[in-house]
Amino acid sequence: MAYTSRLLNAIPGIRHAFLDVHETAAFPYAELAPVKLVHGNEVHHYQQPLPTRPHADAVFTAVAGQKVGVVTADCLP
Length: 77
Known about the structure:
This protein is α/β, with parallel strands linked by helices. It has helices at residues 6-9, 21-26; strands at 32-37, 43-46, 55-56, 58-61, 67-70. The radius of gyration is 12 Å and the shape is globular.
């Protein structure tokens, strides 16, 4: 079951979800532009594919249809 944030849902134009272990396992990662979680204060603005994953704690994009995300091991917001 995907989880959503009431606060993020209130922002026009923002689409988001927090996935559980089953959804994460089935997620099409080839469609995702992920960042490497570093537990800091960096936010990455995705504009185009990069050769490596940037280190950040959040990612956003204005590229229509592009999925972005932060993959975590055991922590949820």
